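Pasting two entries for a bug report.
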Amino acid sequence: MGEIYTQPLAGPLPGGSAGASVTLRPLRCGEIQAPPGLLHRQDGLPGKARGLGIGVAKDQRIWLPIPVYLVEHPTAGHVLIDTGAPAAAAHDLKSAFGRLGAAIFNVRMNSEDSVAAQLRELGVEPREIKTVVMTHLHLDHAGSIGEFPHSVFVVAKREWETAHAPRGFVRGYIRKQYEHAFDYRLLDYEADAINSFAAFGRAFDLFGDGSVTLVSTPGHSAGHQSIVLRLSGREALICGDAAYTRRTLTDGSPPLLLDDEHNFRRSLREIRSYMQITPSALVIPGHDAEVWSQLEPRYA
């Protein structure tokens, strides 16, 4: 394995064009199972135990979509948001997540659900993906990074640092998923290039043309970021895991596990404020099965 190459992302990536809008294809790359209490915190120690799956039968757990998004920019090319689970999860969870991960996580996935297979079905080869934006590096989002050696990866600097800290697995990271000699651009949300956008206090214009705006939404993980896309007639907000479900967007119900609850609630306030001032926006929470069942194949 070669040296991992990182550099600060101090300015827009090339390829932007004035007034550009993008198209969006939500891709469901399999499903991962979780107890309901993991998505929405329940009170007391018994509630926490149920949220961790203790005493929750398999038939009481729910299947959550594993999200990936294909964005098509008219001049900057194909952009991917997250990479989903590794293709190996379709047939060998130990290979995908390690022995402990295979004991904890249950994934429902076919070989055709992998991000690379779905891209090819759409006529896009993985080598044609110029840019991959990572909301964060948890195992169900970073699992197929290795499929895109020709891409530029955009990760929040804080997320990259946290993902490389000791005991990463207990915080949802598997280092082998992103320990590749690829081109990583680290976005420091404290840098001079950071501006505000709508209700978001910290934002970065990825191509310098307003088509893809990255916004800092930490809390679920230390360096989590969400993405605002300019479609032809409205905007779309990819929440990532800043909000698992529509319920969290509606009533603020937090999930069980958070990196930082204060930051989570601040990020959620910014998202909910954005929804109020941009009521026409398509807002997609990270793992809401009902919302995903209602999404269209393509948004322009």
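Entry 2 (this is the one that rendered wrong in the viewer):
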Amino acid sequence: MSAARVPLEVAGIQQICKRLHMPTIAAQCARLAEQAIKEKQGHLMYLEMLLEAEMEERERNVVGRRLKEAHFPKVKTMEEFNFEVASHLPVAQLRKLTEGQYIDKTEPLVFIGDTGTGKTHLATALGVAACRQRRRVRFTTAAELVNDLIEARQRNEVSRVVNRWLRYELIVLDEMAYVAMPDAAAELLFQVIAGRAERAAVIVTTNLPFSEWTTMFPNARLCKAMVDRLTDQAHIIDTGKESYRLQRTMAKNKGAKR
């Protein structure tokens, strides 16, 4: 390949790439061709570079779509969590969980702790890690999920909406048992939780120990069944009582004074 021929061939390649839906190859073929000439690379090496560029861009696009579809309030990662101010947390276990085997095994994951102890950050971080593995993830609060189901019931579409929630590979269910739920609402929520049991993974955050869930779910039998589904073969992580947010702020202020 000579440098003089490159501009003449680029237009034709770009037209073919447009028809084949390969925008990255179209955008980078000229630059990589010049690089191939300078480095005296063969045709196969040049082709490999083009295909790798296309594949990497497609991977980024898929991950971007997964993150958008997950509806995280804010994207947070495990790397951003300051374990130095929350040294009681099982760091090795949490980092192992980012690999996603619990999703493959459909094992629930429950974060229990007081407000400000990092539950939502950690749950979100695991959801983000799953998105990076190209998995379909959905973040929601328990209240938002129940509202979605109640609206579906008013339209006689409960089965369709429940099935939609069952199709996600991972659901991050934030703020479970934060507010009291009437029996009708709890029953709708239970449909999703029971439907996913042993079939798809769920991450739950809660500020109440399981023994106190009956204060939020008055139907003791339903409450027991819900806890049973969420704790079967589950990873249960206690984030403690001391506010991670407060400790993080204190550590930041201490560092600023130095």
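Dev reply: Rendering is fixed now. As a check, the viewer should reflect this: The first strand starts at residue 109 and ends at 113.
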